[in-house]
Design goal:
The protein is an all-alpha fold and 136 residues long. It has one domain. α1 packs antiparallel against α3, α1 runs parallel beside α4 and α4 packs antiparallel against α6. The chain starts with a helix and ends with a helix. 30% of the residues are buried.
Length: 136
């Protein structure tokens, strides 16, 4: 296969596989750590209303979702790519970082400590770690 096409495929696969990992963990989170009593987190309005009631434990799965979705996507991008593997793995990190920034804009009530932790640790470091794990 043409190396350029294979590299494009690497990024596409990284995003396509990383996204459902992210969404799967976001969906699983409230089943394992129930949202605050009397809140409805199934709608954007309900989630915004519930945000002030949430405790740090409620942010574990969103962080895991963002981290593991990025890690797995970057790992796959590195493994599939023929050249510039680290750059393509980091591209996955940047893609998910943009999604994280958009998420913060859509959910302005999320605590600042979580926003900082999420943006600093869940995307680019996990993409780098995915590349390093794939390299071995």
């Amino acid at each position: 296969m043409n190396p350029i096409l294979k590299n494009i495929l690497a990024v596409v696969v990284g995003v396509i596989v990383g996204s459902p990992v992210n969404m799967g963990l976001i969906t699983l989170g409230p089943l394992l750590i129930p949202p605050p009593e009397g809140t409805d987190t199934t709608t954007m309005e309900g989630l915004l209303a519930a945000m002030p009631l949430m405790q740090p434990k409620h942010f574990i799965f969103p962080f895991l979702a963002h981290s593991l979705g990025t890690l797995i996507g970057a790992y796959l991008a590195f493994r599939i790519a023929t050249t510039r593997q680290i750059q393509l793995a980091m591209t996955i990190g940047f893609f998910f970082l943009i999604g994280g920034i958009m998420n913060i804009q859509m959910l302005p009530g999320s605590p600042m400590w979580f926003n900082v932790l999420d943006l600093v640790l869940a995307y680019l470091p996990m993409a780098w770690l995915g590349a390093k794990l794939a390299k071995k």
